[in-house]
Each structure stands twice: as C-alpha cells, then as structure tokens.
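Worked problem 6 (solution included).
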Amino acid sequence: MRKVETYVNALRDVYPEVAERLAGMRTTLDIANWATIESLPKVSDPPTFSESDGKLTP
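Solution. The predicted structure is:
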C-alpha cells in the first residue's frame, strides 16, 4: 500500500509538468508548420484573359 501511495503521489506531482511540456511541443509544432509554409516556393499569379476576345493577356 505504501508503494502505491508513493507512485500515485509521484504521478500527481509530475502531471502539471507533463501538461506543460505537451503544450510546449504543440507550440514548437505550430512554429515548424509555419516555417515550412513560408519556405515553399512562391507561385506567381496566373495569366488573365481579355474580356473582349477571351484571349490571354501578357
């Protein structure tokens, strides 16, 4: 019974730290995702069509 009490108290004491570290991991993942998006090659705007004859305008 004493061992169970020791383990339960240890889990209780460490739980807030686990939650804090998980939140930190999420923040790091969000930063990595935005960095990846920012590093993607840029694509120029597509060509437009002339309204009068429907041909591509340069």
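Discussion: The two ends are 81 Å apart (CA to CA).
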